[in-house]
Amino acid sequence: MTSPRTQFPFVRINPVRRTFRRSHVATAALAALALTTSFAVGAGGEKVAFPEGWDKGVMYGTVDRHDIKQYRELWSTPAAVAAVKAGKPIPHDTVLTLVQYKAVVDDKGVPVKDEKGRFKKGDLVAYTVMQKGKGWGGEYSDDVRNGEWEYQVFTADKKVNEKANLKSCFTCHKPHEKQDFVITLARLGGNAGAAAKPAPGVIAIADFLFGPEKHEAKVGQKITWTNVDDSPHQVTLVAADGKQGQRTGVMLKGQSETLTFDKPGTYGYICGLHPNMKGSIEVK
After folding, report:
1. What fold is seen in the domain 202-283?
2. How many helices (H) and strands (E) does the chain have?
3. What is the pLDDT of residues 65-111, one digit of tens each?
4. Sheet with 70-76: strands ordered across
5. CATH number of 45-188
């Protein structure tokens, strides 16, 4: 790119104005950096300490993550479990700990299951923690704030994971405002809910899997996805070249979305929130 002096050789640039512009740009850049730093560090992650004694609490659920081959345990402080079961609000100082493990896999990389059909627990990977504190969250804008909850991610050796994207925690939990931002609230209260029943043209989303992963349909047929996972999901069509196309809305637990396929062909799709979840529909 040519400079203004090269483009307009007879125009003199005022050095004071140029200095002002540079100063203004630098100030704006520093302000933007300060806002980013405020969210990542000053806004709350540092409020959450590693939850020593987490395993002395209540394990209220387990999750097999088929998409990333992880076994996960859900732990809570006892007072929160008692409150939810009694129909009361989740109390302040509640700590919910998601403990992540690698799933044990066979020589083909397929997760090994125990006698109950669940993944076998392998090496510890990380801890993801959400904690509720009185008056917390006031520094966030309304479109970000998750009530009085803050989040932090710790490595297997109990150190803060400085590379963790805490903003994604807020984004994932934000749609669950009506249940105090706790995705697993039903499990916390001892009600895991019923599994989806197979039906023509219906694909269930459970345990981070599309079931069935391969589905056949006729031209013009409507296909419905129903989410029975605690976690939200979103169907995104993906072309053979990897380009993403039409997508559904985000589905919370119990919600459904429908797409109609008017042309024959094979349509691949992923979960827009968990890209390792994949499925396909062959339209004839």
Report:
1. Immunoglobulin-like (2.60.40)
2. 5, 14
3. 999 999 999 999 999 999 999 999 999 999 999 999 999 999 999 99
4. 58-65, 70-76, 95-103, 121-132, 149-155
5. 3.50.70.20
